[in-house]
Amino acid sequence: MAAAASSTSLKASPSPTIASWMRQRSLSTTFGVTAISFRRVEPRGRHFVVLSMDAKPTILVAEKLGEAGVKLLKDFANVDCSYNLSPEELCTKISLCDALIVRSGTKVSREVFESSGGRLKVVGRAGVGIDNVDLAAATEHGCLVVNAPTANTVAAAEHGIALLTAMARNIAQADASVKAGKWERSKYVGVSLVGKTLAVMGFGKVGTEVARRAKGLGMHVIAHDPYAPADRARAIGVELVSFDEAISSADFISLHMPLTPSTSKILNDENFAKMKKGVRIINVARGGVIDEEALVKALESGIVAQAALDVFTVEPPPKDSKLVQHVNVTATPHLGASTMEAQEGVAIEIAEAVVGALKGELAATAVNAPMVPSEVLTELKPFVSLAEKLGRLAVQLVAGGSGVKSVKVTYASARAPDDLDTRLLRAMITKGLIEPISSVFVNLVNADFTAKQRGLRITEERIVLDGSPESPLEFIQVQIANVESKFASAISDSGEIKVEGRVKDGIPHLTKVGSFEVDVSLEGSIILCRQVDQPGMIGKVGSILGEENVNVSFMSVGRIAPRKQAVMAIGVDEEPSKQSLKRIGEISSVEEFVYLNL
């Protein structure tokens, strides 16, 4: 069998097949990628963003937008600025519009897309979050959704530093005291920043800018981010460390992570207990990353000396909120992006994205994908699910601190090289690798761009097999190089984290972890255990899960040799409690284990 390899590249010129594919769809090749092989798709059944240029398009701006952005829009299109529309009024207007721009106050529901009658081509969200846009409905109706994720970066970083310094010197409390007619100099003695350790939790755009500014204040800066390239951190004098090391050694902790299932309430009772007594917390990211009840307890106990918060789980927070009213908390009403310059920057960024999309260009800030031809999607559907789940599994096996930089994807197929389009599979692997620890939405449009932004290099290899090409793929393998693993058995003989999967009867299955053969359905979640191969192990683990009413869907054991080491893969429908997982780890023959959420 033979193998051929390629890698993602934002600068590479598209192959003739891709270039043709893009021209047929009036799409720019600005973000073309090199790929292994591509199948030409006939015009029948295509769905894509194309605008007839025989008349100016109409753009509805439903919430106030900076003048610079409005001017850009007017240079290209007819612009209707209609604010405070009711849902009914929006649905009435939308059938006359090619694009819609909103902020966070307008709900772009399924009814809006249905009312457009297919005319609406682009929705622009002037800001980062897209909770108010029904992405599934947008994609079903062939409508591209774009946002403006970068213009607020400096404003958010400056606000984080403002909160840090104001908290350290008790500015808000002292100001209130003086205005109340008091003069309490001894009460508001602060702490110096020079020489103190700041842990930046999330080293993306905002986190990086906060680190730069903190270094200028004489602080020692460390950071935690599984995807941050170590060389970029070193370039500004920042050390990347594990999550536990960051929170346990910091004098100040500044949060810049997205709100995802894995980061929700990540600062909780358990993690507050690991921190230095007297630590200070700053949050200009998302309110939900902090367990607010746990933070109040940590403030009362003195584990946390002070907190400076711009975001809350519920906004606005209740008037009687114990957290907001606490004497050692400085609070602001979500002002991170609220500078004149940032508001204008957002307006320009979203205007450029919407105009570009209407021109047929691929948008780097797209948060949903163009529709895939139905015949391709039908054939690849189970493999698309397999690809994403292998990515999710692989990234969850990475231990913190090192960062994911190099990923190799191998496809084994009996298909001819020009008869297997892997772009969608690569996009879904990228989605699985990035989305569990990021707020970025990854899809066919932005996958390669998003990977490059994070310093993630994905190479692809094709293994050509003998046999019938009836099935598009025999297996997919994902390897992550130059990282440590939470589960040592996932490291292959060549030193990479390796997972491999196949589709069986339409269901994705995990078939290899490291050098161990397993066979477990990728439905629900998975527990991996390395154990000494001996009788009774399946029963012991199954009994612990059964006592908690956790249903086991599949169980498979792969071993080196009888009575030697083995890896047991257990599919579960519910998440076991920490106590149950602890009991599994305490079984004498279990050498290591990990719980992986799919």
UniProtKB/TrEMBL annotation:
Its EC number is 1.1.1.95. It holds the Pfam family ACT. Pathway: Amino-acid biosynthesis; L-serine biosynthesis; L-serine from 3-phospho-D-glycerate: step 1/3. The keyword Plastid applies. It is an enzyme of class 1 (oxidoreductase). Its main location: plastid. Homotetramer. NCBIfam families: PGDH (TIGR01327). CDD domains: ACT_3PGDH-xct, PGDH_4. It comes from the Eukaryota. Residues 186-340 form the S-adenosyl-L-homocysteine hydrolase NAD binding domain. Keywords: Acetylation, Amino-acid biosynthesis, Chloroplast, NAD, Oxidoreductase, Phosphoprotein, Plastid, Serine biosynthesis, Transit peptide. Belongs to the D-isomer specific 2-hydroxyacid dehydrogenase family. It catalyses: (2R)-3-phosphoglycerate + NAD(+) = 3-phosphooxypyruvate + NADH + H(+). This is D-3-phosphoglycerate dehydrogenase. It is found in: Plastid, Chloroplast. SMART domains: AdoHcyase_NAD. GO terms for biological process: L-serine biosynthetic process. GO terms for molecular function: NAD binding; phosphoglycerate dehydrogenase activity. GO terms for cellular component: chloroplast. InterPro entries: ACT-like_dom_sf, ACT_dom, Ado_hCys_hydrolase_NAD-bd, ASB_dom_sf, D-isomer_2_OHA_DH_cat_dom, D-isomer_DH_CS, D-isomer_DH_CS1, D-isomer_DH_NAD-bd.
